[in-house]
Write a structure and sequence with these properties.
The chain is an alpha+beta fold. It has a single domain (12-324), classed as Methenyltetrahydromethanopterin Cyclohydrolase, Chain A, domain 2 (2-Layer Sandwich). Helices cover 36% and strands 23% of the residues. The protein has helices at 12-25, 27-30, 54-64, 93-101, 121-124, 128-134, 156-166, 183-190, 193-203, 227-239, 252-261, 274-280, 316-324, and strands at 33-37, 41-45, 69-78, 81-90, 105-107, 114-117, 144-149, 173-178, 211-219, 243-248, 297-302, 308-312. The longest helix is centred in the first third of the chain and has 14 residues, at 12-25.
Length: 325
């Protein structure tokens, strides 16, 4: 583990633990289930054995942002149809979205796999390059929270593996899990709409710490029959239905050039529902153009000049094929 220390901790794990505690207190109303495994790790099931629901997904999404983002429900309208959706906002986009929400930690001890997001990533910092660029870290001196996107509940062995990577004891670990093909899982993926824009900007070489605030909307996918189909639907809700507005400090010429390259339409793989695209690549996720993973439409306002730049647009035709056919 890298020894880098944050110069200014935003207490992501502390904030997330408080939200998780409220969820446990309201477990019956939220349709979730709390268990303990191993040496005291708390596991919150948001959609495997438990039903979960929209509100469980909303709170799960706020946990993945380390309590530094707000998620609300809205309605998203397209040509000929409308969908329930999420509205996301944060005044700490780089930290909330990339140091916490980004599902960048592959949890894969032997015979287990899930994608990990949430504030414990800022403690474990297994994604060395990303955290080096963000220059952010949190210490292992308190509880830690990680959200898992997967179908198999974590057991004692998995909890021990995660706690060990983060340098905390298992009794201070809180794990939340929801499959992609669940109500809560679908909500928390759509709530990544701002995060996908930030990640794309970082991949294009932009210093995302210059993004002051972020706001986004995306539709929530109807629950699919299985997780593979759900991965396609939930991705498409962002790729073809997501809109983001970012408030940034920078140079007009630089931002005008940047915004044109951020939307999903800038990718060579744009225009096909994700499930079909995935099948065309023989099920090899890594053959998909990584520049596809970004919102459909992006606005960037330069806080220094007052100018706003825009690129992309939602695509109702592809979204309808993905969600309803």
């Amino acid at each position: 583990m890298d020894t880098q220390v944050a110069t200014r901790s935003l207490r992501l794990n502390e904030r997330a633990v408080a939200i998780a505690a409220r969820m446990v207190d309201e477990a019956d109303a939220l349709g979730i289930a709390r268990t303990r495994v191993g040496d005291g790790t708390t596991v919150i099931d948001c959609g495997i054995g438990a039903n979960g629901g929209l509100e469980a997904g909303r709170l799960l999404a706020e946990i993945t942002m380390g309590g530094l983002g707000r998620v609300d429900f809205t309605e998203v309208r397209f040509d000929g149809f409308r969908l329930p959706g999420v509205q996301v906002r944060t005044d700490h986009p780089a930290i909330a979205c990339l140091a916490s929400q980004y599902a960048g930690w592959a949890i894969r001890p032997e015979r287990y796999f899930a994608m990990g997001s949430g504030p414990l990533r800022a403690v474990a910092r297994v994604e060395t390059e990303l955290f080096g660029r963000l220059e952010y870290a949190e210490g292992a001196d308190g509880p830690g929270v990680l959200a898992l996107e997967g179908r198999d509940p974590p057991d004692e062995r998995v909890a021990s593996y995660i706690a060990g990577k983060a340098g905390i004891t298992p009794d201070r670990l809180v794990l939340l899990i929801a499959p992609t093909a669940s109500l809560a899982g679908g909500v928390q993926v759509s709530a990544r709409v701002v995060e996908t824009a930030l990640h794309k900007m970082m991949e294009l070489g932009f210093d995302v710490r210059r993004v002051v605030s972020g706001f986004g909307t995306a539709p929530i996918a109807p629950v699919a029959k299985d997780d593979l189909r759900a991965i396609g639907r939930t991705n498409d809700c962002v790729l073809y239905g997501g809109t983001v507005h970012l408030m940034v400090r920078g140079d007009d010429e630089e931002l005008a050039d940047l915004v044109a390259r951020v939307p999903s339409s800038s990718s060579r793989d744009y225009g096909t529902p994700f499930h079909e695209l995935f099948e065309s690549y023989g099920g090899d996720f890594y053959k998909v153009d990584p520049h596809l993973f970004s919102p459909a439409e992006v606005y960037v306002t330069n806080l220094e000049s007052g100018r706003t730049f825009h690129a992309g647009g939602t695509n109702a035709e592809v979204l309808q094929r993905s969600l309803f056919e």
